[in-house]
Amino acid sequence: MKINNVILRTVTKLAVFIILTLAVYLFFAGHNSPGGGFIAGLALSAAFVLLLLVTDIETIKKGIPLDFKKVAAFGAFLAVGTGFGAFVFDVPFLTQSFGNFVVPFFGEIELSTVTIFEAGVSFAVVGVVITIILSISEDV
Amino acid sequence: MVTLNFVVLIPFLAAMLNPLFYKKGTRLHIGLLPMIVAVSLFSYLLFYIPQIANGKTFLHTISWIPSYGINFTTYLDGLSLILALLITGIGTLVILYSIYYLSENEQLGHFYTYLMLFMGAMLGVVLSDNMMVLYVFWELTSISSFLLIAFWYQRKRSREGAQKSLLITVSGGFGMLIGFLMIYTMTGTLSVREVIQIMPEMTGHGLFVPAMLLVLFGAFTKSAQFPFHIWLPDAMEAPTPVSAYLHSATMVKAGIYLVARFTPIFGGEGIWFWIVTGVGLFTLFWGSFQAVRQTDLKALLAFSTISQLGMIMSMFGMGSVALHFGYSTESVFYSQATFAALFHLVNHSTFKGALFMAVGIVDHEVGTRDIRRLGGLATIMPITFTVSLIGSFSMAGLPPFNGFLSKEMFFQAAVDITELGIFHMDTIGNLIPIVAWVASIFTFVYSMIIVFQTFLGPYKEERLERPANEGPGGMLISPVILAGLVVLIFLMPNMLGNYIIRPAVESVFPTLVTEMNLGVEISAWHGLNTALWMTIGVVVLGILLYSFPRAWRWIYAIFPIGWSLNTLYNFTLEQSVKSSRKFTNSYMTGLLRHYLMYIYLFFILLVAGAFVLTGSYDFTISGNAEISIFEWIIALTLIIAAISILFAKSRLTAILLNSVLGYGVALLFVIFRAPDLALTQMVIETVTTVLFLVAYYFLPEWKKENEPRRINLSKLLISIGFGASFTAVALAVQNNRLFDRISTYFENSYELAGGRNIVNTILSDFRGFDTMLEVVVLLIAGIGVYSIIKLKAGNRGDKFENQ
Hints:
Chain B: Residues 128-420 form the NADH:quinone oxidoreductase/Mrp antiporter transmembrane domain. Chain B: One of its GO terms (molecular function) is antiporter activity. Chain B: One of its GO terms (cellular component) is plasma membrane. Chain B: Keywords: Antiport, Cell membrane, Hydrogen ion transport, Ion transport, Membrane, Sodium, Sodium transport, Transmembrane, Transmembrane helix, Transport. The complex is a heterodimer of chains A (140) and B (803). Chain A contains five helices and two strands. With 140 residues, chain A is mostly helical. In chain A, helix 1 (6-29) packs antiparallel against helix 2 (37-54) and helix 4 (68-88) packs antiparallel against helix 5 (114-138). The radius of gyration of chain A is 18 Å and the shape is flat. The mean pLDDT of chain A is 83. Among the domains of chain B are: 272-321 and 335-551, no CATH class; 592-739, no CATH class; 747-803, no CATH class. Chain B is 70% helix and 2% strand. Chain B is built from 33 helices and two strands. In chain B, strand 1 (58-65) and strand 2 form a beta hairpin. In chain B, helix 13 (270-292) runs parallel beside helix 20. The relative contact order of chain B is 0.06. The mean pLDDT of chain B is 85. The interface between A and B is large, with 54 and 47 residues.
């Protein structure tokens, strides 16, 4: 079906980048202010959903050659993996640690293993949402 | 150092990495990685022998859930070392054998992944000190066994055999878990070593006997003891390497390991002695008695395994008496049965492994393992013949093979135990040597059947699938090594006895070890004692029975075919499937509204019920903040939108009104200064609306339903009840009179978790376990939706099934 949605398309081209930036911002902001892995994942999925709405699935698949099932699996693997990673340091399962590091140019920043865990959450959310939407819509 | 914990984890890692190796490895065989893993673990464990022989033990702990006392603790002592060496050693040989046994067209990737999974799980069982961890690994062995039995899942019988083994062993595992929990209740610890310390004071506890019985239930199902043995013959549908590895050398010995490990906890009691010895002896007899009538070589070996496992089990039962006497000469006397048990455990793995592999070669080469079609292969397959000869004669208990030594010790133990003055031994105790002796005659007969009916007699090529040839060289290596060991152990039994078996006996009797030497000098010649006379009797009678089968085979006709345990199993299975289907169909109507009603009703009952019971409905709202004008407006909008849904004419309107509700709630969050929640709510609302629209196409037409007033009324009641209880909960939460506040715990999130966003630190750090499992659930849900839609029934057809 062809619907003339020039406005939506034009807006999307810009909006997608804003949403993507927001998603990345939310992801890193989550530690000290509102945000976090889950919401960042949802925002990312929203960006993809918007793209899917204005263009067709084939174009998206060509443009973003990602298997979202694998993205979801990778996310779950990361999240569970950080749990097992704690064993290497001989601390209980899922123990997270953090510390302050001085990095050139950025100055002193805080790095935390929880970021990896949160990345896993984000990937899982994006992967699952897009997988579900794609598989239902492709079934038509 | 935590190297021992990694010994357990490495096979799991290998199982995970195997698929990658499978894709990349172009010329290398996929079995290579598992084999390297097995060989290196085996050689690594070998280095522990000298220290273990000196009485050292190794304990490593990785904290897992310390607050519940659940830690991944590995404990290596003599007993676990024997099993660990068997698992890795036989594992290496089996993998080598399987490389030649399975053709390249099979799903080798799956095979080796399952095999590695099993190896890790089994090492976990024998090395774990924590009962919960042990239980997890225990069930993992059942699962990997299930996967391996169903390796040729196209065959109906494989699937049935796999199902049977899983049902029986897992139900045993559940029983065992309950037993462990009882032990925990009694002793307050999950560590086996600590339980051993505490348990002697608990023998009068009301849970002592139930816990013992449940642990034994687990052990007996796993080790295929009567009457749970019926799964093992059906498990022979697995490829032969699997049968040799799981179903004769290692997994079925897990139950025996458990009995040995728990002997210091429960042993010394009359019930333990009688159950373990009695069940073991009867299994010994029943297995050998049934083995004689089998015509399939693998089925014969399966029953013979059952019988041999029973024999080892009974020896552990007899040995447990030593604990009753404490420090005395009698203890040493009776502990010899345990020594014999462990000795036979090793011997059985060698000769049975060799036999299974030899049978596999025969099956592989001629395409059948039915002894009525086989014969005369001795000259065509000389090496396989020699291996089978060594294996069978060892199993029959003949010199110069290791089976002779342990069989003699078994007879000796059975004779010795009759002198025991306790546990009513004076009355029925004399049956023990008699049953042992009769069972050994049958053992002799079926051992002869394996060799002579397969390899001697006329060669009947027309009845074989393919003309016979000796197996390929690579396939012969493993059985030849095992057969070599059979002879070597006979020649140098004390090497094994002193370095490996004595430390293991010491770990079965940790309380006795400080006072006395539990080692036994094994010698092939004891003089003409009772045990030797018994062996001579076995040989003479065995030869007679083997030569004149017609004279006594009528015994089998006594039992009607319909009266077997298998019939009972099938009947139970059929009935439970039938009745559970009936029950499920009665409430699974396929209508979403019914399911929602179940959920809401349950919620109302549970929450409102708890409210009424605890009196929490008695809350005040006087202390709440005033409601501002904005809040009134949003709330009114929400109410109007909610009520309008009921009168919506089209589905699209309903969906949009529903999202009005969602965004309205998000606005409320904004007003209450909860940007996190608002943001999440907004994005969720957006994504769900899209999902709704995507699914829109598939939904049925939106039309008015004409249902009787009565049903509509009940729906109304449920809705109001649900809404009311929810509102009550929301209002009562502010009062929190039931529990103490836990928020203080999270307030110093910055020091504890390094984040200032308390909500997020709770989500990903304080309660990280919840989030992790939610992620996994999300993934499972996603895969579920995907596979339901993409792999609809009918796409693949039934061509793979029911071959």
